[in-house]
Amino acid sequence: MVMGIVIIVTSILTYSIGTRYNSDPESVVLVVLLMTAFLLILSFIITSSFERLAEANRLKSEFVSIVSHQIRSPLTNLKWIVELLMSGILGKIEGKQGEYFKILKENTERMQELVNELLTVSRIEATKLVFKREPFALEKIAGDLVEEFKPIAKSSNIQLEFTAEKNLPKVFADPFQILQVMENLLYNAIRYTAAAFNDGKDKNNGKITVRIFKKRNSVVCEITDNGIGIPKDDKKFIFQKFFRAGNVRRYQAGGSGLGLYICKSIIEKSNGRIGFSSKENSGSTFWFSLPIAK
Ligand code: ADP
C-alpha cells in the first residue's frame, strides 16, 4: 500500500513537472530519471525491512520451539517424581503434604499443557504441522469424546448432552487434529460454564450440548454452553494468539489464550470454517464445519 501511494504521488509529480517544463526536454528526462532512482531505493529499503521482519519472526518461532522441547523432558520427570511421592511408596504422606503434592501436580500439568500448546503454535507457524487426510465419521469421534468428558462435566455439576443427525456423510480431514479441536472447545465450554456456576449462580444449572448435523456440503459440530459468555468488546480478538477475555481473567487464573488460535489454524488448514456466537453472562456457541468426503 505504501509503495502504491508513493508510485501514484511520484507519477503525478513527474507529470506536473513534465507539463510545466515541456519546453526543456532534458530537464524532464532528468526529473524522470531522478524519480525512478528514488523509487528503486525506496522499494529496496521496504523489501529488505520486510525480509528482516520475516527473518526475526522465523527466529522467534525457532526459539520458542527449541525452548519448549528443552522444557518438556524435565517437566515429564517432575510429574513422574511427584506421582511417585504421592503414591506413598517412598514414605507415608502426612499432614498437609498430600494437599501440597496435589497443587504441585496440577501446576506441573498446566505447564505441560502450555509447553505443548507453544510447540503446536510454533509448528503451525513454521508450517510443520503434519496433516493426514482421510474420510471419517465426525459424529463417532465426537460421541466418544463426549463420553470421556462426562465425568469431568459431572464433577462440575454440568449436564453434558450429545445429539447427532442420522446417516451423516463422512468428512475429509485429519481425525487426530480434529479431535484436538473438539477437545479444546469442549474443555473451554466446561471451564467457562463451571466458572459461571461456581460464582454464585445455581450450582445445578450448567448445561452443554454438542450437536453434529449436515449443512449444505459440510458437516457441522456445534458446542453450546450456558457459561460466562464473552464480553461484546472482546469478541473481535477471540481467535488471536494469547488473547483472553476480560471476564475470564476475573474468574480463572489458568489458561494460555492459545487454544482457539490453534483450533482456527487446524480448521482452516482442513478447508473448514470456524466461528462462534456469545452473550456475556448467558453463554456461548462455538462451531466448526468440515468438507464432506467425496
Ligand atoms: P484459554 O481458554 O486457555 O484462555 P483459548 O484460546 O482456548 O484460551 O480461549 C481464548 C479465550 O476465549 C478465553 O480466554 C475466553 O476468554 C474465551 N472463551 C473461549 N471459549 C469460551 C467459552 N466457551 N465461554 C466463554 N469464553 C470462552
Task: Give the proportion of residues in helices.
Answer: 55-70%
Number of strands: 7
For the residues shown, what is the average pLDDT? 90
- List cofactors, ions and other ligands: adenosine-5'-diphosphate
Low-confidence stretches: none
Count of the separate structural domains: 2
Main β-sheet: number of strands, strand sense, barrel status? Answer: 5 strands, mixed
Q: What is the radius of gyration?
A: 27 Å
Task: Give me the CATH architecture of the largest domain, please.
Answer: 2-Layer Sandwich
Helix-strand category: alpha+beta
What spatial order of strands do you see in the largest sheet? 2-4-5-7-6
- N-to-C SSE string, H for helix and E for strand: HHHEHEEHEEHHEE
CATH superfamily descriptor of the largest domain: Histidine kinase-like ATPase, C-terminal domain
Number of helices: 7
The coarse overall form would be elongated
Strand percentage? 15-25%
Characterization of the model:
Helices cover 57% and strands 16% of the residues. The longest helix is centred in the first third of the chain and has 63 residues, at 25-87. The mean pLDDT is 90. The chain folds into two domains: 1-129; 134-291, 2-Layer Sandwich (Heat Shock Protein 90). The protein starts with a helix and ends with a strand. The strands form two sheets. The protein has a five-stranded mixed beta sheet with strand order 2-4-5-7-6, with helices on one face. Strands 1-3 form a two-stranded antiparallel ribbon. β6 (273-279) and β7 form a beta hairpin. It has 294 residues and is of the alpha+beta class. Residues 184, 188-189, 192, 225, 227-230, 238, 243-245, 248, 255-261, 284 line the site of adenosine-5'-diphosphate (ADP).
